[in-house]
Amino acid sequence: MQNFEYYAPTKVVFGKGTQKQTGELVKSCGGKKVLVHYGSKSAKKSGLLDEILESLEGAGLSWVTLGGVVPNPRLSKVYEGIELCRKEGVDFILAVGGGSVIDSAKAIGYGVAEGGDVWDFYSRKRTAVSCLPVGAVLTIAAAGSEMSNSSVITNEDGWLKRGYNNDVCRCRFAIMNPELTYTLPAYQTACGCVDIMMHTMERYFTKETHTQMTDGIGEALLRTVMHNAGILMEEPENYNARAEVMWAGSLSHNGLTGCGTEGDWACHQLEHELGGMFDVAHGAGLAAIWGSWARYVYREKPERFAQFAVNVCGAPNDFSDPEATALEGIRAMERFYHSIGMPVSLKELGVNPTEEQIREMAHKCGFMGKRTVGAFKVLKEEDMAKIYRLAR
Amino acid sequence: MQNFEYYAPTKVVFGKGTQKQTGELVKSCGGKKVLVHYGSKSAKKSGLLDEILESLEGAGLSWVTLGGVVPNPRLSKVYEGIELCRKEGVDFILAVGGGSVIDSAKAIGYGVAEGGDVWDFYSRKRTAVSCLPVGAVLTIAAAGSEMSNSSVITNEDGWLKRGYNNDVCRCRFAIMNPELTYTLPAYQTACGCVDIMMHTMERYFTKETHTQMTDGIGEALLRTVMHNAGILMEEPENYNARAEVMWAGSLSHNGLTGCGTEGDWACHQLEHELGGMFDVAHGAGLAAIWGSWARYVYREKPERFAQFAVNVCGAPNDFSDPEATALEGIRAMERFYHSIGMPVSLKELGVNPTEEQIREMAHKCGFMGKRTVGAFKVLKEEDMAKIYRLAR
């Protein structure tokens, strides 16, 4: 087991009707003037936004609103938010939405608190030491941003999608009412489940040994998401299934599933470039690339994939042949992806990159030759290109 | 699944050599004048205290020390600490030890920040809204106080042992170096493992349904502690086993294993009275009472005990007879207790209460007829007496 730090200070308020506590929670964090940040019209149409504004009003708070955050949230919207916050004297940012909205809120928070160009943090030119306090009312279980220290923003100038991790941006509170996710389409629900699972799987595939507690949590989380994702394909308004997935989504990315291990994150990096070039849904992109990544790397430590096969996928353990068990686990996971309508290849994802595009994605993913990705197996640019090719 | 709140803001710094970061961590919390609170001479003798004072000095901090905290920490020591903090202008309390020292530190923190008689909080006369910041360097894996919101203090006037739970007392940081627990005797190690397991089991035995994520974490945690407790009986200096138990100890009592369920806590309440009357080790007292509690209550929902038997104890599932499976799980857990030298009866605990003493413990446990305990099965005073009798 490696040394580790674990820090997840977000106060979670989970369950039915909890959005009514928004005003009091903002107030308890010292907020007086709130930026209510949201995405599509659905928060407005569903009445959620009204309910939240009412709650803020009830707590004696004032606010301004800024909607229109899109998936793969844009830097231009972040700039707009920073300017609005400065003009209006905002001291608290409330994100109403999923990962994109929360990530955008965190970026605005950095920008307001730190000054200068907020992109500097995402391009590694500066390190943030402060962030305006952010809270979240979660409406999509997927990104885990409500408890994570990460934020991913896309700069339209060059379509660069870059993440920045810093504890100062962690949400003060996260309100999670599973009912708010009832109306998500099946495809988005499935994408969310894959994203949640990948946040654990990126940490689970490690060469580190003696991580029994962390392994056990990760395996339980993966089994929980798989089981309930299946239910949700047939019963989108099953409260308990929505609740299991939502809670798993937060735990998957708050650090808990990586305590004592070294994360891999190659699939996320590979998918970022896919998303940047083809604007595919993040979860679907991850599903499309994972099997090819797994087959490319599993020989580094087949017994780890065998453990995954048995403890997560319920595959029988062929004790005499860990490699066979490992491969059966990869196939089982792909069958699971199919069962919830997720792709296991770029073709199924609806993407057909040319050889030139593959080379470009690999080149960008490797920061123009400046970095490798992955830890379970360290991948160079040529490895990345091979995995993209395998995934076609 | 029930609505729940989850809030565990403690920053965990886990692994070898982490005690060297003490000074910087106190400083990052704004501490300038530190009360270093500790228990027995072992922290002094082992050189840990010197190492910590050196680290404080390196960070430019000043300090006073207060040792002598005993198991079942005393109110008189808390009063002494409060007076010392006031006199010396202490602004941060560093607990170096296990649950007793951390609980005492939290009580001192309430007393300094709130004024008045600190026992008022433990006797439910007042509610605290503030607490001097507390940090911990953990030397015993057991109580989970390093991440919990609870503190248990014994008032020598009447030997009343009372707990008080409040989020404001949660540790700002917890430094956990498993090496610091190498020298714990086997008996204390085993007691700690039982205490850790019971913090999860008190939450696990619930009539609530649809708690798959929480169940999975709890079951993984229990399996992890059982496996590694066995290792530690033979290899007290096995780093990874110490690490698994230590991390499980924090997760077991920080709220994670009870999300969405209703806790029972009857065994803890029953043991508090045993501890009050006979001053037995908390973990051993819990082990001695648990089997009798379990046999007294399991018929309320045998299938929950059957799940425990199969998923935690590895018992075969007799699908046709959940009661038989449940009972086999209880027996298996008792065999496990025996395997690490823990008692499964009061006799084995070395305690032989008279009928009068049993009635007195039950009467005190029921707050002189003013409360019931338990939730899986609600226990009245007469039930408590029956369980004590069964446990003889």
Helix and strand pattern of chain A: EHEHHEHEHHEEEEHHHHHHHHHH
Give the uncertain stretches of chain A in residue-range form: none
Could you say which structural class the secondary elements and strand pairing of chain A correspond to?
alpha/beta
Largest interface by Cβ-Cβ < 8 Å: A-B, 42 and 42 residues
Distance linking N and C termini of chain A: 37 Å
Q: Write down the overall mean pLDDT of chain A.
A: 96
Q: What can be said about the biggest beta sheet of chain A? A: 6 strands, parallel
Tell me the β content of chain A: 5-15%
* Helix content, binned percent of chain A: 40-55%
Protein name (chains A, B): Iron-containing alcohol dehydrogenase
Keywords (chains A, B): Oxidoreductase
InterPro entries (chains A, B): ADH_Fe/GldA, ADH_Fe_C, ADH_Fe_CS, BDH-like
Organism (chains A, B): Candidatus Limivivens intestinipullorum
Describe what you observe in this structure:
Two copies of one chain form a homodimer. The first copy, chain A, is an alpha/beta fold and 392 residues long. The first copy, chain A, is built from 16 helices and eight strands. Chain A has a six-stranded parallel beta sheet with strand order 1-8-5-4-2-3, with helices on both faces. Chain A has a two-stranded antiparallel sheet with strand order 6-7. In chain A, a hairpin with a 4-residue loop joins strand 6 and strand 7. In chain A, helix 1 packs across helix 3 and helix 7 runs antiparallel to helix 8. The longest helix of chain A is centred in the middle third of the chain and has 23 residues. The radius of gyration of chain A is 20 Å and the shape is globular. At the A-B interface, strand 1, helix 8 and helix 9 of A face strand 1, helix 8 and helix 9 of B. Strand 1 of chain A pairs antiparallel with strand 1 of chain B. Chains A, B: GO terms for molecular function: alcohol dehydrogenase (NADP+) activity; butanol dehydrogenase (NAD+) activity; metal ion binding; methylglyoxal reductase (NADPH) (acetol producing) activity. Chains A, B: It holds the Pfam family Fe-ADH.
